[in-house]
Design a protein that fits this description.
By secondary structure, the protein is α/β, with parallel strands linked by helices. The chain has ten helices and 20 strands.
């Protein structure tokens, strides 16, 4: 049995990890009181293996988003441009539309519908030309979505793209009809895609669901088993490549708005003599995008934002150049992170590394910023929102800590802030790298609760 939080000291939690099969060398913990001058002993700290190298999983998003926050500014808004090499004659565009990606991490279906509305407002009714996607802002070829874990249709495996639309993801909703059978809906709707379903009911609730999807040319097949007591079930899939998916979203929205289009989707470069049809400025500021990334741990958004760190220069943005930008930023801030290995900016990687104290020092520095609470609130509030909404059940820390989670097979992590009962502030980073990492969640939550109540 674990001791109650009130009766514990820090070493008891280290022993709790050991009780579930996780040895000391598989955990890295750095908990430091704020405000502080780093290394000064008068402030409380609780640490073990804080300077060793660990895989941080998605907590590395804190580094990506913090650098973007500082370099781009919290009010930055991304711009997507639509241009043409043709002419509009009596409502018909004779020519191609060039969709020029500006690296917006969250260009979603609602934006596309508004873009369609504004194009229609120009008097444009029909497009007799192709949809040509210019994603050349990033020097980053389309990745193999199977490369990380062999799950190519999982939205978290979507790679970054300067012209990404709706995270290249669709929501499939299956409704279990009372009269028998099923209704399957795809959002956003995709032009030319038909749905074929072969679903069978089995006894039980949604926990019995075993659904598989495949896309064969223009036919999306949805098949498997669904619990007969499961009334509604939704999940996300990634279909097609970036430029084909984006065109299908646009084409469907265009047709639904009464427009006509006869072309197809291609990759290409916007010609110098093209004419701008529309500049779409995102309705979302960077701070709201960072909130989404840190709260929901959105990998495609994080990877796209990471590449944006090196965009706008004389060269295309690239992973290597964005890594250089982060290293230069760290040097300017006088940070020395000797264990840091930067990969793709999202944490969806087996290569990324950092020490617990490095991430904690980053958090301490961020809370000294003039707009520190804007930054603080980009992290999810525990027990309330995002990836920590279902954690800390029946614990008093709910609503008093802001923690970014990290989770991979063999990795569990927390990094963020705790405001204690005594009104003290702590920066906390907890890494667990072990085959038993999944079992460590309760101990991690108990440790956060202990800091909140006892420090």
């Amino acid at each position: 049995m674990f001791k109650t939080a009130q009766s514990k000291d820090f070493n008891d939690f280290v022993r709790d990890f050991e009780k579930i099969g996780i040895p000391n060398n598989s955990i890295g913990i750095s908990i430091v009181q704020i405000p502080t001058k780093i290394y000064q002993p008068q402030n409380k700290s609780f640490e073990i293996n804080q300077g060793l190298s660990f895989n941080p999983a998605s907590t590395i998003k804190l580094l990506t988003t913090r650098v973007a926050y500082d370099l781009l500014g919290k009010n930055h808004r991304f711009v997507t441009t639509l241009a043409t090499n043709g002419k509009i004659i009596q409502g018909v565009l004779y020519g191609d539309i060039f969709f020029i990606g500006g690296g917006d991490p969250k260009l979603v279906i609602e934006d596309i519908e508004q873009i369609v509305y504004e194009l229609r407002g120009l008097g444009l009714n029909e497009i007799k030309g192709d949809w040509i996607v210019d994603d050349s802002l990033f020097d980053n070829p389309e990745i193999n979505p199977s490369s990380f874990d062999g799950q190519p249709m999982k939205p978290y495996n979507v790679g970054p793209n300067a012209a990404m639309i709706n995270f290249k993801a669709s929501e499939i909703t299956i409704q279990n009809l009372k009269r028998g059978g099923f209704y399957v809906e795809l959002k956003p709707a995709l032009a030319g895609i038909k749905i074929s379903k072969n679903l069978k009911k089995v006894r039980g609730g949604c926990y019995k669901n075993m659904i598989t999807t495949t896309l064969n040319v223009n036919m999306l097949k949805v098949f498997g088993k669904i619990g007969d007591k499961c009334k509604k079930y939704s999940f996300y899939v990634s279909l097609m490549n970036h430029h084909q998916f984006g065109f299908s979203v646009f084409k469907k929205a265009w047709i639904q708005a009464g427009g006509k289009i006869s072309g197809s989707a291609f990759l290409g470069k916007n010609p110098k003599n093209s004419k701008t049809l529309l500049k779409w400025r995102s309705p979302r500021s960077l701070i709201s995008l960072i909130k989404d990334i840190n709260t929901m741990s959105n990998n495609p958004m994080a990877r796209t934002l990471f590449l944006n760190l090196s965009a706008g220069s004389n060269y295309q943005a690239s992973i290597s150049r964005s890594r250089d930008v982060i290293r230069a930023w760290l040097t300017k801030k006088d940070f020395v992170f000797p264990k840091l290995v930067i990969h793709n900016g999202s944490g969806l990687s087996r290569e990324v590394r950092i020490s617990a104290d490095s991430l904690t020092y980053l958090l301490i520095d961020a809370l000294a910023d003039a707009h520190s609470f804007d930054w603080l609130n980009t992290l999810p509030k525990v027990g309330v929102e995002g990836t920590v909404s279902q954690r800390f059940k029946n614990k008093t820390v709910i609503g008093n800590a802001w923690l970014k989670t990290g989770s991979l097979k063999g990795v569990q992590a927390y990094s963020g802030y705790i405001k204690t009962v005594q009104k003290n502030w702590f920066a906390v980073t907890i890494f667990v790298n072990s085959v038993y990492a999944e079992k460590s969640k309760q101990v991690m939550d108990n440790l956060v609760e202990w800091v909140y109540r006892e420090q």
